[in-house]
Amino acid sequence: MSKGMNKNTSIKTINLVREIGSGINWNEKKNKQFVEAFLALENANETQCFLRDLMTETEIKEFANRLEAASLLTKDVQYNSIIESTGLSSTTIARIAKWLNGSLGGYRLILNRISNHHHNSPKIRKGLSLSS
After folding, report:
1. Could you tell me which of 130, 1, 125 has the C-alpha nearest to residue 64?
2. pLDDT tens digits, one per residue of 35-67
3. Directed axis angle between helix 106-119 and helix 90-100, to 10°?
4. pLDDT digit string (tens) for 2-33?
5. pTM surpassing 0.90?
6. CA-CA distance, 74 to 96, in Å (whole number)?
């Protein structure tokens, strides 16, 4: 066992890997670099430029629709309405609902931050931000 890890930590890590998929090694150099790239972005313009270089327009629209679906699911909007407004399949929406309610909380975290951003006065901070 590595330093700082105990039996419970390693069990939690194993369960987390099972939940998010063993196909992703977040410690691999290129995956670390990918995460670091997002953390290095300082404003909406930088983020838009990076995302546009990274993804096709279709991919950007797809991911924006997935986030919108997660937002709508938190408001108890019915699948049929989400399908109509996003164009996503019911299978994709079900997958989003699964992750939205899962233990990792990635969707919940970002939706809370977006919600708090819109309800609070703008603050200068490092990392991703959305500007009006």
Report:
1. 130
2. 999 999 999 999 999 999 999 999 999 999 999
3. 80
4. 445 555 555 655 565 555 555 788 899 999 99
5. no
6. 11
What is the per-residue pLDDT across 112-127, written as a single tens digit (0 to 9) for each? 999 887 665 444 344 4
Give the pair of three-digit tokens for residue 60.
């950007």
Rounded CA separation 53/60 (Å): 10
How far apart, in whole angstroms, are the C-alpha atoms of residue 100 and residue 105? 6
CA–CA separation, 106 vs 108, rounded Å? 5
Residue 38 domain flag:
no
Mean predicted confidence (pLDDT) in 60-80: 97
Q: Is residue 10 part of a domain?
A: no
Domain range for residue 102? 57-116
Q: Is residue 101 part of a domain?
A: yes
Number of separate domains in the chain: 1
Note whether residue 68 is domain-resident.
yes
- What value, to the nearest 5°, has the Cα angle with vertex 94 and ends 88 and 97? 110
In terms of DSSP H, where are the helices of 1-132?
Answer: 7-20, 29-40, 44-54, 57-74, 79-86, 90-100, 106-119
Q: Are 52 and 60 in contact (CB under 8 A)?
A: yes
